[in-house]
Amino acid sequence: MSDSPSAPFGRVLTAMATAFKPDGSVDVDGTARIATHLVDHGHDGVVVSGTTGESPTTTVAEDGEILAAVKDAVGDRASVVAGVGTNSTAHSLELAQQAEKIGADGLLLVTPYYNKPGQAGVLHHFRTVAEATGVPVMLYDVPGRTATQIALETYAAAKQIETVVAVKDAVGDFARGVRLREMGYAVYSGDDVSNLGWLAHGAAGFVSVVGHVAGDQLRAMVDAWDAGDHAEALAVFTRLLPAIGAVMGVPNYGATTAKAGLQLLGVLDNRTVRGPLVELTDDEVADLRASLEAAGLL
Predict the structure, then answer these.
(1) What are its E.C. numbers (predicted)?
(2) pTM flag (> 0.90)
(3) Rounded to an integer, what distance in angstroms lies between the CA atom of residue 35 and that of residue 188?
(4) Given this structure, which CATH class describes domain 12-214?
């Protein structure tokens, strides 16, 4: 039986979509409905205002409304992590302090994107934001979106900050992840296709996107792994592959596919996204439906 690694925010989390009304304004009730759906289906945590939540398009005030609505909806039964990472340290600081006031259980802090700071700048950003609150921090390493990878030396320095406890890894270097665990990080898979591989390398859990439509299955995979039934964990993962491919396979994946999936499940009544994203076409939704059916999710 594998030891269950320390999981400060839970094992199964999803980076939640933010519901919008057809006019593009935030749908607070719809967003709360997504959170409730996730926690009713295998999740013990959610992340709001990450990339899948379309955080580059939401204001500070909207991020506060989203977090408060989700805390009210599920905060008594799941951890609620607030995405506060932007490419402006002052903006991230403001979001982090707001999230602490509203009662976030954790902060997700991505490497500043587009600016391409050096490692000294990355560390300065992490330190400034993390030291401004008492809320536990999950760093987020996703060079495909940020153009910057966090160096091991930067991880080692950041781990000296008392509140920095975890990392969401979308680099996919399993050996490096083992080294991060040795530094004391709880490592979360940040890429659904790598979820099972990360469990084998000692990860705490997942911050998923496919979890919007497959939370119970992700929970079953973790439970099988923890019980030592690795063949069953692989079987669950294998059945999910069509869904993972569909949710992560279109150019606009993430918010667009998550919302379309939630619409197919009846959780949302629209799949509105904010520019520069565009919602899935009817043909793309038909392909998504076929893949979710193939995975046994519809």
Answers:
(1) 4.3.3.7
(2) yes
(3) 19
(4) alpha beta
The Cα–Cα gap between 30 and 43 comes to: 18
Query: Cα dihedral sign for 158, 114, 135, 189?
Result: negative
Binding residues: 52, 207
Determine which one of 168, 185, 188, 259 is catalytic. Answer: 168
Are the CB atoms for 257 and 281 separated by under 8 Å?
A: no
pLDDT tens-digit profile, the chain (298 residues): 234 459 999 999 999 999 999 999 999 999 999 999 999 999 999 999 999 999 999 999 999 999 999 999 999 999 999 999 999 999 999 999 999 999 999 999 999 999 999 999 999 999 999 999 999 999 999 998 999 999 999 999 999 999 999 999 999 999 999 999 999 999 999 999 999 999 999 999 999 999 999 999 999 999 999 999 999 999 999 999 999 999 998 777 899 999 999 999 999 999 999 999 999 999 999 999 999 999 999 9
Binding residues for pyruvate, by number, are 52, 207
Whether residue 168 lies in the annotated active site: yes
Measure CA 235 to chain center.
24
Q: Give the integer Cα–Cα distance in Å for 215 and 40.
A: 9
